[in-house]
Each structure stands twice: as C-alpha cells, then as structure tokens.
Amino acid sequence: NAGVTQTPKFRVLKTGQSMTLLCAQDMNHEYMYWYRQDPGMGLRLIHYSVGEGTTAKGEVPDGYNVSRLKKQNFLLGLESAAPSQTSVYFCASSPRQGYHSTPSGHTGELFFGEGSRLTVL
Amino acid sequence: QQQVKQSPQSLIVQKGGISIINCAYENTAFDYFPWYQQFPGKGPALLIAIRPDVSEKKEGRFTISFNKSAKQFSLHIMDSQPGDSATYFCAASVETSGSRLTFGEGTQLTVNP
Fold it and tell me: Which residues of A touch B96 (CB under 8 A)?
C-alpha cells in the first residue's frame, strides 16, 4: 500500500547540473502533479498531467520539464539547476473527477508523496 | 499573484484552546475549498473540505466556516491538542480544472501542552 513514492528523497546539485525526480503512484490515478514548497509561499504548481502522455504547465514551470510516459509515473526534470530551484518538491496524484471517489468521499482529493529536498549550490 | 491569502503565518495555542486560521480568495470561480494538514517530513494530507453551497462543515474537532460574499473561509480547531501541531494549508480550485489546487501560504500551528 505504497501510495505515492518519490525518489530521491534528498539531493545536492551544483549550479548547471541536471537531474530527474521520479514519482510513482500505485492507485491508478489519472491526474498527477508536481508542486514545490518554499517557506512563506505555500505549495506552487509546477506542471501537471491529466493522463498518460499528456502534460501541462502550472504556475511556475520555467526551468522544469516533465514527462508522463506511463500512467503510474510522472518525472520532473531540471536541465540546468539554479540556486533558485532549491526547494522541497512534492508529487501528488488524484483520481479523475466525477468518476471516482476517494475513501474520504472527495473526488478532488490529492494524495501527496513525502517530498524530495533539493539543494542547488 | 497569490490568489489565496492565508493568515496568520504562525500560531501558538494552549492545549484545549481554539485555533483559528483564515483564508481569503480572489477568484469567484473557485468552487472547492479544502484544508490540508502537513506534519514535519511528510506530504500534506486532506483534512476537511467544503463547497460553497454550505456555510459550515464540521468533522470532529475541525470546522470550516465559509463566507461566499466576503470570499473568505476559515478553519477552526476546537479543543486543540499537541498532536494537532502541524502546518495547515488552505486551498481552492475550480472543480472542472482537474484538481489544480491553488494553495495559501501555510500556517504553522504549535499547540503547547
């Protein structure tokens, strides 16, 4: 009963390096999201996907790319890391609205992973 | 622009007291207002949610009050306990947007024993 799993949990990069964060969910959810969390700024949406093979930009997409080749996986890439990308990154998934209810009864409920802490020096 | 504003940034309450966190939104198209709770080192988890067809929703010690005309909603935690110490986020979305939540800035709640 893993839910949403993020790897790696911690990573330190130097400016200009690239890396990929992996998110995997085992709940057969249609929608997946990448958020970043920064002190005093809440959670901001980077990119999201409404189904396998689809991606879309969120609120703060610059400097990031994503791919959803398989329904259960959502990858977040940083091609050339910058210190401003130092943050905690959260992946989330949710069922397709109007079709499924979660145990709480909320079709819009997001299920989050435990986060990936990235430091860019 | 921050479409959902949350206050206070931090809150300290004594055990047994009432914790109140407030949020205000700008987009009148928002029609789903959840609150998420986050413990240190964990991801946020849904706590309680409301839709604008009701003015209040209660689940145990947690209550959302919703004022559509003022575009404000708040979370009340009655009989606050040390185990409630966490960061709380309000959020809002347009349900047809595919759960694309816009989050508030977060409130760090500390409940002292």
Answer: 97
Q: In chain B, what residues touch A90 (CB-CB under 8 Å)?
A: 43-44
Cβ neighbours of B98 in A, within 8 Å:
31, 48, 50, 97
Tokens of A71: 């329904």
Residue A40: what pLDDT? 86
SS3 A83: helix
Q: Is the pLDDT of residue A109 over 90?
A: no
Dihedral angle of Cα B61, B99, B85, A60, to the nearest 10 degrees: -160
- Among all chains, which residue has been given the structure tokens 């209550």? B63
pLDDT digits (tens, 9 = 90+) for B13-71: 999 999 999 999 999 989 889 999 999 999 999 999 988 888 999 999 999 999 999 99
> Tokens 């959670």 appear where?
A43
B98 vs A31, A43, A113: nearest CB: A31
Q: Cα(B106)–Cα(A38) distance, rounded to whole angstroms?
A: 10
Q: Which of A43, A49, A55, A112 to mutate to test the interface with B (most CBs of B within 10 A)?
A: A43
Please tell me the predicted confidence (pLDDT) of residue A99: 45
The count of C-alpha atoms lying within 13 angstroms of the C-alpha of A113, restricted to the half-sphere facing its C-beta, is: 29
Contact partners, residue A44, CB within 8 Å, separation at least 6: A35, A36, A37, A38, A58, A59, A60, B103
Going from the C-alpha of A109 to that of each of A10, A12, A92, A118, B16, the distances in angstroms are 26, 31, 10, 26, 29
Residue B48: closest CA among B13, B71, B23, B76: B76
